[in-house]
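HPt domain-containing protein
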Amino acid sequence: MSEYDECTDALVDRTVLTELQAELGGDQAIIGAFVRNYIALLPWRVSRLHRALEKLDIEDAMDAVLSLKTSSHMVGAICMNRLAEELEISIRLLPGAEHLHELKPQVHEIDRFVFGTIDELETRIL
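Predicted structure tokens:
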């Protein structure tokens, strides 16, 4: 059993977007556009992580994981956010860029939840 198995029960916290919508005066169109933008960019953000690890580019890896973490937090993608937080910590603990390849299993774990997160956002939120 993986330490990430609990992600299958709660990929998205719907209350995050409900609260954001309330803060924005109830405008569903803004929330819909925000979610669609996240969905469109999620596969690209994850592939950017893969590329950074392949190139052993620790700065790009950190930038990519922070982008994933922040955007996931804002949209309520709690599993993706948590996995990104854990990857961020792992990157910070690396002794150097030459060790980035050691983090590939964590990025593959993120891969496992990309389409589930997208599906949950599309079916429950949009």
